[in-house]
Amino acid sequence: MAQFAAEMVWGGEVINHLTRARRELNVTLQSFDVVLEHHTELEMQLADLDAISAQEERAFEVKGLMAEKEALAADKEALTAEKRAVEAELEALTIKKTTVEVELDDNRARAEAEIKCLKAKAENAWGLGKEEFLKSSEFDNLCMKKSLACFECGFKSYVALLRPIFVFRCAPGKWDPDPPPYANTRLGDWVVTEAVNIKTSSGTFLKRKKGRLEKSAFGTEIP
């Protein structure tokens, strides 16, 4: 269990490391986007300067203002140098981005492997605990209680189902669960039926009242 807890802690550290790497990648991507936007702006400025330089060059040819032309050339050279620096920074950020992505993929693969290992160990531990519980006396007692409860419920349901449907005839030393409907009976026989009025061959008048069967001639109630 201690080793399992240590592995869980290590898994948390791996996840934290992945989170930090992901955050660093997002920051790098944002920097990459900013640099790329700045690079685009510089290219636009350089294009504008080229256009201005062309116009000024034509004006210089007319006016002979070579000094301003040299100044524009210096500005162009400075912008070109800045553009090269930005391109170098962009390339460095691209390399860093690739490195971070590779590291993130490696960390993700290791984390997935560790998670699978931890899951397998947890399932194994659960299986062992379940097997011990099935072998314990507590499980036997629980099964016995459930069996008794199911038997009692099923027996009561069976009796409640048969009582209003079938005719039971019980004589001393004999029990017939399926006699013909409204069969003739002797004195001393017990008859349970759903009929409202039945007259037996012995003259005993039977009636069903409030869930009980009464023998009117003799005043004997049969449940």
- By CATH, the topology of the largest domain is Helix Hairpins
The outline comes out as rod-shaped
CATH architecture of the largest domain: Orthogonal Bundle
Count of individual domains: 2
Counted beta strands: 7
Question: Major beta sheet, specifics?
Answer: 4 strands, antiparallel
What is the helix fraction of residues, given as a range? over 70%
Distance between the termini: 64 Å
Mean pLDDT: 68
3D architecture notes:
This protein has helices spanning 2-63, 66-134, 137-162, and strands at residues 168-171, 174-176, 190-192, 197-199, 205-209, 212-215, 220-222. The chain is an alpha+beta fold. The chain folds into 2 domains: 2-134, Helix Hairpins, CATH 1.10.287; 166-222, no CATH class. The strands form 2 sheets. The protein has a 4-stranded antiparallel beta sheet with strand order 4-5-6-7, with no helix packed on it. The chain has a 3-stranded antiparallel beta sheet with strand order 2-1-3, with no helix packed on it. A hairpin with a 5-residue loop joins β4 (197-199) and β5. α1 packs antiparallel against α2. The longest helix has 69 residues, at 66-134.
Main features:
alpha+beta, rod-shaped, Helix Hairpins, 3 helices, four-stranded antiparallel β-sheet, disordered C terminus, coiled coil, 223 residues
Secondary-structure blueprint:
Blueprint: H1 2-63, H2 66-134, H3 137-162, E1 168-171, E2 174-176, E3 190-192, E4 197-199, E5 205-209, E6 212-215, E7 220-222
Antiparallel strand pairs: 1-2, 1-3, 4-5, 5-6, 6-7
Helix pairs in contact: 1-2
